[in-house]
């Protein structure tokens, strides 16, 4: 916007905090997911709407910003009034200079014609003063003096106007002030209680990808990863976990066909998909109850549940989904180089919703 008057008007009248855009009328449609009486649309507003976030967390900040915006508006209005007043005077001076220039040009033309007359030349020859010529010369000199004075005044007013434009340009834009404030609200951390309430799987399932990413900005910036083997397994970074090397795997396909669920080793490898009686019976009959006698069955069950070459206890290890912190461990667990399949979760999501235990040298979420 190049017009100074328009810029002054915009700065003095840009929308204020108290005049925020009103949110759309809340939907009254019944939605299955609820938390403390809020349906999913209300939950999304609580989590993602910076205006709602600021109203909950930062009343003092909102009041401070409103005061700052009001102050900017007031100063911009004052400078704008000065600008318009000086601009009017500047235009008046310019008009006076133009009129005087025109009058002077007319007078000079009349004077030149008068000086060319025989009577004036004769008077000049006899050194007799011609009164009309003298009067016109005096008038022209007066005009020149006035033109010079008005020109100086106009130049001073132009300098004042330029200074006011610079002063106006230094004022922060209220719209950008509001945008910056709400951008800060978009990263306002959720409390631990809110994480437990709002990061539930049934709520996250209702979010779009963009909404999920926006929500992550309110969480810790850490992630947990889970690699699922897909494709021709052409690498392994250690002597363990080498099953299926140089073979084709379709782990991702299995996840997609199984309700997109990640399951622990006991479910994937041993077929124990649930803890109900029928699932447990099916699990036992698959291998354990096929032993020659009861004692051998017990030994197989004990070995299946407790015996392990790894550092973690066998049963917790086999009944948990395994994740790596801050890295994607495709070197150890992946399938086909440059075509790996893996899942990423915000650490806060899993930590707030599930039981967990650390294993390995670094027992923390923030370091690999």
Structure write-up:
The chain is mostly helical. It contains 17 helices and five strands. The longest helix is centred in the first third of the chain and has 57 residues. The protein is rod-shaped and about 155 Å long. The two termini are 51 Å apart.
List keywords for this structure.
368 residues; 2 domains; 3-stranded antiparallel sheet; 58% helix; rod-shaped
Q: SSE order, as H and E? A: HHHHHHHHHHEEEHHHHHEHEH
DSSP strand tally: 5
Number of helices: 17
Helix-residue proportion: 55-70%
Short account of what is shown:
This protein is 58% helix and 5% strand. The protein has helices spanning 4-13, 40-48, 50-57, 59-115, 118-125, 131-169, 174-185, 192-198, 201-204, 209-216, 251-257, 265-268, 277-286, 294-306, 314-318, 330-333, 347-353, and strands spanning 223-228, 230-232, 248-250, 324-325, 341-346.
Chain-wise SSE layout:
Elements: H1 4-13, H2 40-48, H3 50-57, H4 59-115, H5 118-125, H6 131-169, H7 174-185, H8 192-198, H9 201-204, H10 209-216, E1 223-228, E2 230-232, E3 248-250, H11 251-257, H12 265-268, H13 277-286, H14 294-306, H15 314-318, E4 324-325, H16 330-333, E5 341-346, H17 347-353
Helix pairs in contact: 1-4, 3-7, 4-6, 4-7
């Amino acid at each position: 916007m190049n017009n100074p008057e328009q810029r002054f008007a915009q700065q003095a009248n840009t929308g204020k905090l108290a005049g925020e855009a009103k949110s759309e009328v809340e939907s009254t449609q019944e939605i299955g997911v609820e938390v403390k009486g809020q349906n999913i649309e209300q939950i999304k507003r609580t989590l993602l709407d910076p205006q709602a976030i600021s109203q909950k967390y930062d009343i003092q900040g909102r009041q401070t910003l409103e005061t700052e915006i009001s102050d900017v508006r007031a100063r911009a209005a004052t400078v704008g009034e000065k600008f318009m007043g000086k601009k009017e005077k500047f235009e008046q001076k310019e008009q006076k200079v133009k009129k005087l220039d025109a009058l002077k040009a007319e007078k000079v033309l009349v004077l030149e014609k008068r000086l060319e007359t025989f009577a004036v030349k004769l008077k000049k020859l006899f050194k007799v003063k011609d009164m009309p010529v003298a009067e016109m010369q005096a008038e022209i000199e007066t005009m020149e003096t006035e033109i010079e004075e008005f020109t100086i005044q106009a130049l001073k007013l132009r300098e004042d106007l330029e200074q006011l434009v610079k002063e106006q340009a230094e004022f922060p834009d209220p719209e950008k002030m509001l945008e910056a404030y709400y951008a800060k609200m978009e990263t306002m951390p959720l409390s631990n209680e809110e994480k437990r309430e709002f990061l539930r799987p049934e709520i996250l399932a209702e979010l779009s990808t963009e909404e999920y990413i926006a929500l992550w900005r309110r969480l810790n910036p850490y992630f947990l990863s889970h690699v699922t083997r897909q494709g021709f397994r052409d690498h392994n970074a250690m002597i363990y976990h080498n099953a299926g090397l140089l073979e084709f795997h379709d782990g991702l396909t299995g996840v997609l066909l199984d309700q997109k669920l990640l399951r622990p080793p006991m479910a994937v490898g041993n077929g124990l998909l649930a803890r109900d009686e029928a699932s447990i019976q099916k699990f036992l009959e698959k291998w354990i109850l096929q032993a020659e006698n009861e004692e051998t069955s017990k030994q197989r069950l004990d070995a299946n549940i407790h015996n392990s070459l790894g550092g973690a206890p066998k049963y917790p290890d086999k009944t948990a989904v395994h994740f790596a912190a801050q890295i994607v461990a495709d070197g150890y667990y992946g399938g086909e180089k440059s075509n790996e399949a893996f899942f990423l979760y915000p650490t806060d999501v899993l930590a707030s919703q599930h039981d967990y235990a650390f294993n390995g040298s670094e027992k923390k979420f923030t370091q690999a």
